[in-house]
Amino acid sequence: MHSFGYRANALLTFAVTILALLCTIGSLSDNLNTPSPSAQIEILNINWFQKQPHGNDEVSLTLNITADLQSLFTWNTKQLFIFVAAEYETPKNALNQVSLWDAIIPAKEFAKFSIHTSNKYRFIDQGHSLRGKEFNLTLHWHVMPKTGKMFANKIVMSGYHLPEDYR
Ligand SMILES: *[C@@H]1O[C@H](CO)[C@@H](O)[C@H](O)[C@H]1NC(C)=O
Ligand SMILES: *[C@@H]1O[C@H](CO)[C@@H](O)[C@H](O)[C@H]1NC(C)=O
């Protein structure tokens, strides 16, 4: 006869095994889900555009950020971390990336939104190359799962320009 303790232990082991299996299936089925997120970012206004006393260019923008990231949510999604970055090339660096705004999306119901905001973080070039600069606005997301690996991706929107003159 097995003791009660032995059986309880066997039951627990079985439960843990099933749980591990479910987690594996969960992360796998998550990988099979092909999300179709969308985003548009419009520059509503250049609030000001200046050269700082020590020489770096800084610009303040008002953005209209519209996105539908609902398809990134599955039962295994804890939350999304998203950020909007300005990305541009300069003679010094092939890629300059400046984060302008970020947010945490805690649930699917908040994943479809339109927000009218000025840049939350300063858009400063480490130099003075922003006049007339062509740049991309990129919406990046990090999906934080309840179980399994975090993954990240982005939508690149191109064709934005800064003015030729400070204002
Ligand atoms: C922001 O963009 C969305 C989608 O393009 C549009 O429906 C909305 O009217 C815009 N809002 C403003 C304040 O321009
Ligand atoms: C901006 O986007 C275009 C088109 O996707 C891409 O070819 C270019 O390399 C991007 N520029 C930067 C600096 O990432």
UniProtKB/TrEMBL annotation:
Compartments where located: Endoplasmic reticulum membrane
InterPro entries assigned: SPC3 (IPR007653)
Membrane topology summary: Single-pass type II membrane protein
Signal peptide bounds: 1-29
GO biological process, one term: signal peptide processing
Record-level GO cellular component terms: signal peptidase complex
Pfam families named among the record's database cross-references: SPC22
Sorted UniProt keywords: Endoplasmic reticulum, Membrane, Signal, Signal-anchor, Transmembrane, Transmembrane helix
Major location category of this protein: endoplasmic reticulum
Record bears the keyword Membrane: yes
Function, as annotated: Essential component of the signal peptidase complex (SPC) which catalyzes the cleavage of N-terminal signal sequences from nascent proteins as they are translocated into the lumen of the endoplasmic reticulum. Essential for the SPC catalytic activity, possibly by stabilizing and positioning the active center of the complex close to the lumenal surface.
Family to which the UniProt record says this protein belongs: Belongs to the SPCS3 family.
Protein name: Signal peptidase complex subunit 3
